[in-house]
User: Fold these one by one.
Assistant:
Number 1:
Amino acid sequence: MLSRVKILGAGIIGLACADELVRRGHRVTLVDPAPGSGASHAAAGMLSPAGELWHGESELFVFGARSAALWPDFAARLDVPLREEGTLLAALDHGDLQQVLRQAELLASHDVTAEQLARDELLALEPGLSDRVVGGARLPDRSVDPRVVVAALRRRLASRVEVVEAAGDLDGLDRRADHDVTIVATGALLPAPFDRLVRPVRGEIVRVRSSDPPRHTIRGWAHGEQVYAVPRTARAGVAEVVVGATSEEHNGPPVATVGGVSRLLDSARRLIPGLDRAEFAEAIARDRPGTPDNLPLVGATDLEGVILAAGHFRHGVLLAPLTAQLVADQVESGHVEPALDPRRFARSDLTSLERTTA
Amino acid sequence: MSLVIAGEVLSSRLFLGTGGLPRPALLEPVIDAAEPGLVTVSLRRASGTAPGGLLDTLRRREMRILPNTAGCLSAREAVLTAELAREALGTNWVKLEVIGDETSLLPDAVGLLDAAETLVREGFVVLPYTTDDPVLARRLIDVGCAAVMPLGSPIGSGLGVLNPHAIEAVRAAVAVPVVLDAGVGTASDAALAMELGCDAVLAATAITRADDPVAMATALRLGVEAGRAARAAGRIPRRATARASSPMTGLIA
């Protein structure tokens, strides 16, 4: 049965859902006052389930790996290039190297081989790294430019969906004459009653232009500070390099601070000294939509006809293609992944943030 | 005997720092395991009153909240942060940090004393994060601090108590509670601090960045208990030679 779907939020998640639903023949209206201007506009675009793996987050890793496997087709459909050069973990001192080894061990327990690299091997692969690196590891994780993805999705959908550039809310829920289903994909700004399920986690991120960019995505530890540098494809010998990201829980508006930007750039220059000569292009901040268990909220809710595609925290770009499929499956068959079910947090007990099962 | 700071009875001698917890869902299980006497929060990192946020959970669990001035690089910044925290969180307690440099994160002794004096005058209950220096500890108490929180080793280093003699000397220098702060990596570090005479131990990274934060919270609670019990039990002297545990006198040859 074909549905008429209203999607609140035209970031990478809302757009990917729209694209998948349109492909399956459904009719879609997208509502967003400023499409593509939220977290998607800030995100670095690391498609990095392995790099993001942490203790106790095996489920997230499995979903990440599933979505990473969908990315090549997703990108090809949009005619967006993926960077295939891979990811290097790099350590500047002995304590940092222990963090790399800890990550490699954790990956090994998930059947992912992180090829460990001695200092010389690391420098041979990435000569732009500081000669003070002490070692690292190599991961196959790719990257993509989320701004290019969002632009491609918007171009592709322009003639296929209705786009309403206005603030969307749920007040039309009881008046669903014009649509059967509402999908909420508004990132860190969920409307009530779902607002308690996500909290804003500010991330500051910097973009520079370099004639001497790294070839790989670099995920580094610089004397205990974590920093990453994600290169884009060079044009006329100059490449954008995205340096990120801070992580701060707060109440105020997401603004880039002097302290945050300076810590990011300090750590990045320690790892990749050539960035010292790069042109400073941009510093912005956006809120990540954090959930209690770091897993997104994808599926039906207790409100009839309302589906969440939200709470993607650090993983919105990676998880976009999988989320789109899961949301379309939900619309068509009611299927939901239990681990991502928004109802896993008891509504009567939202403040406790405990899972109702498990 | 319970730990008393500034006239308030605390329920436990393990203090919990919340920075670095990978998932908010871990907070309650960690609290259940650690049973902390108080919980420190950085005003910079806590999402204020956001529902379901850190503070929301701590308040619902009726935890005693100790705001800190983490990351402040001058006395002025620390005083401003403490004032903001008092307003936002409704407590006049503050863990005072004045950081000397961002590499070592060691306390700036001069700025610390300066800020402590100002905050005490403004009516705060001040618990200063300090170096393991008995003279500075004495000076901090002289300006009216309610406790001292010497470091075992640098923040987040997990190196444990690097100078046990200095911690003992701080203990001997002041009559207020001594809380070992910073450097705890595992349970034996917490036990050692208590054996040296500390009244409590604060742990943050040791718990939040462990593979299994809930299990490590349990381990540190037990470490604090074990160390305190051992201190009270009175340890045997260290000696350079063996001494048989069974008496050798009076035995038939």
Number 2:
Amino acid sequence: MKRRTFTWLAAASIAAAVPATAQETLIVGAVAPKTGPLAGGAAVSYWPNVQLWVHDVNARGGLDVGGTRYMLEVVEYDDQTNAGQTIQAVQRLVNQDGAQIVLPPYSTGLNLAAAPIYNRLGLPMVTSTATTDKADELSQQFPNVFITLGGAVPIVDGVVEAFTALRDEGTIGNRLAMVNVADAFGIELMGAAKPAFEAAGFELVYETSYPLGSQDLSPVMKAAAAAEPDAFIAWSYPPDTFALTEQAIVEDLQVGAFFTAVATAFPAYYERFGEQAEGVLGIGGVNADGEAFQDYAARHLEVTGAAPDYWASAMVYSSFQVLEQSIEAVGSFDNEAIIQHIKDNSFETVIGTLEFDENNNNTSFWTVGQWQDGVFKGVASTGREGAVEVQPKDGWN
Amino acid sequence: MDVIVTGLLLGGLYALVAMGLNLQYGMARIMNLANGEMLVAGGFAAFWFYTAAQVSPLLTVFIVAPVAFVLNWLIYVVFLRPLVARAKSRGQLEVDSILTTFGLSFVAVGLMLAVFGGDYFSYSYLSFPVSLLGDTYGANRIVAFCAAVVICGALWLWLTQSRAGLSIRAISVAPASARLVGIDVRRLAALSFALGGTVTATGGALISTFVTLDASTGVLFTLKALVIVIMGGVGDVRGTIVAALLLGLLETFVASVIDPGLTLAAAYLLFVLILLVRPQGLFGRAQT
């Protein structure tokens, strides 16, 4: 399952444009799901960014490392959403394929599982799709690992903040229905959300979990509707995010705030539900009106043929930019120096300025977004610019 | 009441998923582990026609069905008939066909990834509420249930009333003896395999109106179908329908009354209980 992509055309035109510098080829390794349960998410948020980043770097003449220009060539592996495969592929990339740069894998679980091997091989690992509250422990054990997408606690805080704002306006009451997918992600967020919402004065009138891959979520939504909540939250994964929204429409769930988690920020969500998605809240968000994001989104669409999502996509690209800028600044492939450079500096990326605290943790990221006029706009973040006012959900029509 | 209706609707979906495998395993004797991929392919076709040209999935099935029939016929003739020809016993054929179709499922996933990409494909079709006996249900689920009733009913009639159906039942009971009474086993086995694939792909097109699929979700449906077919009794259409409805009702009951987190546990508990009490399945014949 290995593929080499190299844009000969771009390479040729660049070669003509910059004839003075020597041209070398640099192998970049990427490993993430192309099959298995997380393949759908990786196909939206991860793989197109690998393609776009390599395209962008090659289009500007390649990576400048100590005066030598390197054209990037990607070796891709499918880890089948299997941590064992991820680890094998990373080893293979370094030992057999001669990859000088290995991009981080996809998803919280696969990143955490692969952290030890990146550490043993001394590779910088700027993760972009991992959410964890354990950044401090992680960075002590693996000082080469960086976290950018935040953790469960700040995300929950963002949701509480958005819901409290709506309650204080008087658009929703205190009655909250909350469900989660029975999986590491859903359980962790549910665990953090319950005490946080109770502390904020919300009353939990319905809560439940459902197994990953449930084919019918109508009993869940029927029971939630029967509890007559003012607001609904689901810590859900992509297939159930779609299913729960559809059931809410079918049951005509009347709530002033409707929140679903992963995949709410996908363009496919709006394509499917259209105007009924207006006002739906979800995990993530971006500065959708910002120039940096709009420029990035336009290039993403042009190069890969698909629009980026409004959460992890931009962060994935940004994490590649951090690597790119650090390698150029250090001027060699000395991984230790590159890791130190990432720790010590801040980076201008498509998501804005990225910098890391003493725990290798990026502390400013988007937590909650909302579909407004066909765009998923960030409404809450931990210190990102461009948040818009949260609006109440006005029915399903 | 709404638990019963919701359960029946889910049971109808399961019947659609499992009926094709039942034909393939029960009649053609091929344990087809690539069954779920055929379902996803049917769903892909419906998605593609709907998003590209606004063709209703209810019309797409008339395109999907003949294409799936031909495709499955070819799969049977090229990949599976050599296994049937060389198999010395039913056990050997089962092992060989499991290995072959397991491999085919990877090929199918790879092909779908290459052609359609790995993105989720979901669209809204008939996702408005319908009032039924004082409660609301998604129109797309009701349509899929009606289609399941029609498809399963037609299959049952065909298998019990027509001469071809009689012959197919004969090869499912005793393939060796069927040949002695002038039944073309080779042709009919291919026919039932192709028919099974057709039903599965049609089911995929129908359920894609409310289930979000991607290239690698097929295996989930294969597993569900396997459980239902074995529970109902291999090779018995009634068994599959009863087992599918039973499973749908049980899962909905557990999800509504006890806890949604226990649906899977309840489903497998039912599976184990049925296997303990009737190892041959609800309607199955005891193995000789």
